[in-house]
Automatic annotation (TrEMBL):
InterPro entries: TadE-like_dom (IPR012495). It comes from the Bacteria. This is Flp pilus assembly protein TadG. Pfam families: TadE. Keywords: Membrane, Transmembrane, Transmembrane helix. The lineage of its organism: Bacteria, Pseudomonadati, Pseudomonadota, Alphaproteobacteria, Hyphomicrobiales. The chain crosses the membrane at residues 20-46. Residues 13-55 form the TadE-like domain.
Length: 169
């Protein structure tokens, strides 16, 4: 029997070789799915926390209790249970909208840096208010580049916005 025939006929270790070939792409896909799932989970939590906190502005609780930016951020971070460094990382911008045709939603990223000038103007009764929250996200697995809109240090910026009309309070 020739050496070639014996080599191709031997099936010992075929599964190990196949696994070695497919293991790296398989685990890369698994880690990418986990990373995106965690990021989406935190982004959904940020949306829910901003919605819940913005309600306090909309109904007048924030105005009557004389909230400032720090109180708003502390309340929002208290509603966001999935992020541990929220109070140090969160950036908030609340502005009164005078003309609905000129609403400007900022992206938060300019030239690879986080460029949000924090502001906290919640207006008065009947005013339209736009509240935007930006939270830098450190990826769990840093081997992927999901999008081009990230910071120079590799962090992504999760953002959420609420546009509403203050109730008469």
């Amino acid at each position: 029997m020739s050496i070639l025939r014996r080599f191709t006929g031997d099936q010992k270790g075929a599964a190990a070789v196949e696994f070695a070939i497919l293991a790296l792409p398989f685990f890369l896909v698994i880690f990418a799915i986990i990373e995106i799932a965690i990021m989406c989970f935190v982004a959904a939590g940020l949306d829910a926390a901003l919605h819940k906190t913005a309600r306090q502005v909309r109904v007048g609780t924030a105005a009557t209790d004389h909230w400032d930016l720090n109180i708003f951020k502390a309340t929002l971070c208290g509603n966001l249970v999935y992020y541990f460094d929220c109070s140090n990382s969160l950036l908030v911008r609340a502005t009164v909208i005078t003309d609905m045709n000129s609403v400007n939603k900022i992206s938060g990223i300019a030239d690879g840096t986080l460029s949000v000038s924090e502001d906290f103007n919640i207006g008065s009764a009947g005013d339209y208010v736009l509240i935007q929250a930006f939270l830098p996200w450190i990826p769990v697995v840093q081997y992927y580049s999901y999008s081009s809109s990230k910071l120079d240090d590799g962090r992504y910026v999760l953002g959420s916005a609420e546009l509403f009309k203050n109730e008469p309070f």
